[in-house]
Amino acid sequence: VSTEEVPTLDSVIKSNPLNINTDINAKPDNKKITVEKPAIKISRTRPTEQINRLIENGYREFTNGNTDLAYQLYTRALLRDSNNIDAMLGLAAIETINNNNSKSEYLYKKVMELDPNNQTAKAALANITVSADSIMTESTLKIMLQQSPDNPQIYFNLGIIYLQEGRLVEAMQMFNTANEISPENPDTLLNIAICHDRYGELDNAIGYYQLALNAASRGNSSFNRHEIETYLQQLIKESRTSKQDVKGE
Asked: What's the DSSP call for residue 19?
């Protein structure tokens, strides 16, 4: 008998690290992650090939939800190449999932030093800035929107505020606009799914959860993929049961 706790919509929302934290007294997550030290061994494999293999394995484990193992693999790659951008992005994404914003911010800034035009790091830093700033308000974001009307991140952040306040119609509008400007962003798709879920529109919610997971498999995301997959399966079962009950009436 499995003892794994079944995720709920509330747990999905709470685990989404992009939600703006308005609790200025919240204690930081001091969870320590054990980093496996690379074993010293003689190998004919070229260093670059070793690093690429570590990056590929790290990404595979990350997309499968094994963030601890992915962290170790990315760390080993970075120990071999201290300027490896892929390893930094992988570690930064995991730190974001673990709500270690100071560590992820450091890594993303390091990436920007090496590659000033790196779009992944730019978008992530915008997320971290808003998430860490509890004073960031709706009016401030609207002023920013006037200056940068085509910036999907501003629409996304407004959507987060509206979602937290229960303003689902406005939240959906913001997330949809962000998705139109920057399609297939897994974090945006996840929040669209959450809006539909809260509305009780299970079919639409299921569709967007699946889109979010598909997008996450092709690029970086800031949510726990394994948890979303588990929750999605539960939601699909509930939807089927509900439809069967309706047919039986």
From this structure: S
- Residues 212 and 215: their CA atoms lie apart, in Å, by 5
Phi, psi for 93 (deg, rounded to 5)? -65, -40
Nearby residues of 108 by Cβ (< 8 Å), 6 or more positions away: 88, 89, 92, 121, 124, 125, 128
Q: In one letter, which amino acid is 144?
A: M
> Comparing 12 with 27, which gets the higher pLDDT?
12
Token couple for 196: 């539909």
Cβ-based neighbour number of residue 13 at 10 Å: 16
Query: Tokens 């709500």 correspond to what residue?
Result: 99
Stretch(es) of the chain classified as CATH 1.25.40.10: 1-20+136-249, 24-135
pLDDT digits (tens, 9 = 90+) for 158-208: 998 888 888 899 999 999 999 999 998 999 999 999 999 998 899 999 999
- pLDDT at position 85 is 93
Nearest to 105 by CA among 69, 132, 75: 132
pLDDT of residue 87: 92
Are 62 and 94 spatial neighbours (Cβ–Cβ below 8 Å)?
yes
Per DSSP, the residues of 110-125 read HHHHH-TT-HHHHHHH
**∠ CA 246-248-249 to the nearest 5 degrees?**
70
Residue 249 has a pLDDT of 61
In this structure, CATH architecture of domain 1-20+136-249: Alpha Horseshoe (1.25)
Instruction: Read off the tokens for 109.
Output: 């800034």
20: alpha, beta or left? (left if phi > 0; alpha if psi -120 to 50): beta
- The 10s digit of each residue's pLDDT in 83-123 is 999 999 999 888 877 878 788 888 988 998 999 888 888 87
CATH class of the region 24-135: mainly alpha
Task: Identify residue 134 by its one-letter amino acid code.
Answer: S
